[in-house]
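Students often ask why we bother encoding 3D structure as a string. The short answer is that it lets us treat folding as translation between two languages. Here is a chain of 401 residues written in the first language.
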Amino acid sequence: MNLTHKIRLYPNRTQTQALLKACGVARFTYNYALAEWKQQYATGNKPTALKLKKEFNAIKEEKFPWVYESPKDCNQQPFTNLQKAFSKFFKTKKGYPQFKKKGVRDSFYISNDKAKVVENKIRIPLVGEIKLAEQPRFDGKILSFTVSKDVDWWFVSISYELPQPSVSIQNNEIVGVDLGLTTFATLSDGTKIENPKFLKRLERKLKREQRKLAKKQKCSANRGKQRVKLAKLYRRIRQQRQDFLHKVTYFLAKTKQEIVIEDLSVSGMLKNRKLAKSIANVSWAEFRRQLEYKTKRFGSLLTVADRFFPSSKTCSTCGFKVDKLPLSVRSWTCSNCSKLHDRDINAAINLRDFRVGKAIPEFKPVEIVLAGKDLFKAEPSTLLSTKQEILKDEHFGSLNV
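And here it is in the second language, the structure alphabet:
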């Protein structure tokens, strides 16, 4: 399996200028290739990345000699990236490749044979040794490096090829996870993880800084400084959200044998103007993405329930299904068995019992299973006694639930 470790860099002034120059070379090469692709396509030719690269290499020494001041991959990899972008566009008919802008997602690629990691430093050709914030976490074959800039911070993403992990989950605990807005996640054992609402905490400050930016004169130095200040605030919110999601998904993947979640249509939910900002802030799609690769890493199982499975409207005791259950109703009583249900806990229990005709897995590797819509009753699971111990493992800190 492939995993990537993103580490912050601490370059000096000279190295910072070299990194900015490398990003500029990568951006220029990509834009040059895209312009040539469009021009050749308009004249009836069929351009490819390989042809464009050969043409560029033939003239770069004469017309663009400054590209030799940066690592070679900065003016070679963009052609491959452009080919991938067009292949994706031709396949999906969405997202036609666009020209890159300075200061927007600045980055460049380095192959595994050109850069080298030595303890807490990385050696980049024509840049030098740059200090890392921490030593790489994984031990495996390095596939590539990607250096990127986030406002005023620099990062390197090291891609590793790791062997298939041995199964480490030594229990048969199955947990259903119901995602929400007020409560971020409700587990079938009754545990509720509250939504920290990082955006709402800093929303007033964001508005204040945005008003300041609107009053600055365009193209002025003060406007540039204010843009950086605002970007740092957005980065703070993004990093807080990522840290929270990593802690929750790590706990679930490390302590549960099987995790059952819903196949949510996030893009469809975002069309609701009243809830769009709240839904975007909780990052349900990112939560699922992290669960997918972390369950592979720890040898647990991820099951994705059918999108139309009525987890909230079905009684987890008798299986009776109500016709309508508005979002405003947070608890309801079953008219068949008179059982009072907490909406979120009931949905989580139904998700746990979702597996139809499927035995409890015995230490299987991860897989995503789309099952049917019927219910399979199982005994409720209990929390592991090692929960707090696991939450403090591997630099993930503690999680308040």
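Translate back mentally: The longest strand covers residues 141-150. Keep this in mind for the problem set.
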